[in-house]
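Predict structure. Chain length: 232.
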Amino acid sequence: NSPDNTSVTLTMSGEGSKGITLAPQDVIFIMDHSGSLQTYDPQVLRILAAHEYVDNMIAPFDRAAVMKFDGNALLFNHLSSAYAQVKADLEALSRMQPQGQTNFQSAVDLVNTEFETFGNEDNLRVGIFFTDGRPDPPSANVTMEQMNRLVSNRVRLYTVGLGPDLDEELLNWMAWYTGGEYFKAEKAEELVSIYMAISDQFYNYSAGINITLDVRLTEDFDYIEGSINISE
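Prediction complete.
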């Protein structure tokens, strides 16, 4: 008879609690603490952003540490899933007066040392490198040896720049070279959303995973090979 074909649309929906697929991570918050931050982030929203990131982590798989750098770099505590201590380190940093220069080289050197000594071999290794400036003095810039060491240590740098006085080409290159990503914040109020955008890359929230839909036709129908079109 004519017509001799028809199209059938099948719609599927699901409900229930979301499941979480995660990629366990070791993350170091590498926080610029030079004097110019009193101008560009007086409300220390960079600290709030890191707090929010920690709140999104899953114990005991994810670990974190806090580092500040100005003229030199300082690590507060080693990588740990003791999130109360990580937050305490962030609070301690928020109470310190920003001052001094912007030593990229010292910061990256200490990141490498921490991952080499205390990094978990099974975790992703992430450095969130926040700054509102450029290497100061210029001789404090990162070296190729340091960057190659990061790559050898499997560390991805996610660089976050705030304000108008940035070397964006350098920050973009640092992220690209290590397989990370560069984010630019025009104002400090954007930092929380940037940090959460980085965090969300390591989690997959789904109501169902690897679902199979089994459709059976009666004997009255013949399936036309290759005619299925699946849409989201």
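Summary: The chain has a mean pLDDT of 91.
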